[in-house]
Amino acid sequence: MTAHEGATVLVVEDEPSIADVLTIALRYHRFEVMAAGCVRDALALAERTRPDAALLDVMLPDGDGRALGRELRLRQPDLAVVFLTARDAPAEIVGALGFGDDYITKPFNIDEVVARITAVLRRTRPDDVLPQRPPLRYGDLELDETTYQVHRAGTTVELTPTEYALLRFLVRNGGRIVPKEQLLRHVWQYEHPAESTVVETYISYLRRKLEPLGPPVIHTRRGVGYGLA
């Protein structure tokens, strides 16, 4: 069985036609799917079934999808959270999605949605229990490969699964500059990397969490990619 097979996805989308398309496609790919059109119904469903992932529209008729995501994550810390947002959403909305594991802009390709949820679940719902492994270290960074905890200069840094996967890939590549396309393939599992700002967005999230604890650690090579300083 793969990491996602049999996983339950909570789809929260108030537009029935979009919810139907997402539900049909995800079930075709062997996900269990629950659908809700509002915050109230989503919270009730999540309480009863404890989904593995939540696909949340940001704009809902009775509340904010971001607030819903925070509440779901508080109730279930291991829940994978993916947001749906309009392509022309203001920057402050996209920036506020930093506690989630990924976001997808509308209009979207349904195959991309399935691929992104599958990729997030690979990171948050591994196939087997991992054996004890030595931590990864780079400078004052330490990544525990068994518990997925991160420390900088001895201080714990709370990262989402996607942030952890991105930092781990940079640590594994040491001081080498990793091209953006390679990050999209290895961290987000994009088979055909296209123009996307998701890498820049998550690099900014990492910097926001790591830099208060020490000097800048992530280096940008404009037009090429990212590496550790």
CATH third-tier fold name of the largest domain: Rossmann fold
- SSE class: alpha/beta
CATH H level of the largest domain: which superfamily?
Answer: Response regulator
Mean pLDDT: 84
- The ordered string of helix (H) and strand (E) elements is EHEHEEEHEHEHEEEEHEHHEE
How do the strands line up in the largest sheet?
2-1-3-6-7
Shape: globular
How helix-rich are the residues, as a percent range? 25-40%
Number of strands: 14
The number of domains is 2
Oligomer type = single chain
Supply Rg. Answer: 18 Å
Q: In this structure, how is the largest beta sheet organized?
A: 5 strands, parallel
Q: Please state the second-level CATH architecture of the largest domain.
A: 3-Layer(aba) Sandwich
Ranges where pLDDT stays below 50 over 5 or more residues in a row are none
Helix run count: 8
The CATH class designation of the largest domain is: Alpha Beta
In short:
InterPro entries: CheY-like_superfamily (IPR011006), OmpR/PhoB-type_DNA-bd (IPR001867), Sig_transdc_resp-reg_receiver (IPR001789), WalR-like (IPR039420), WH-like_DNA-bd_sf (IPR036388). GO terms for molecular function: phosphorelay response regulator activity; transcription cis-regulatory region binding. The protein is of the alpha/beta class and 229 residues long.
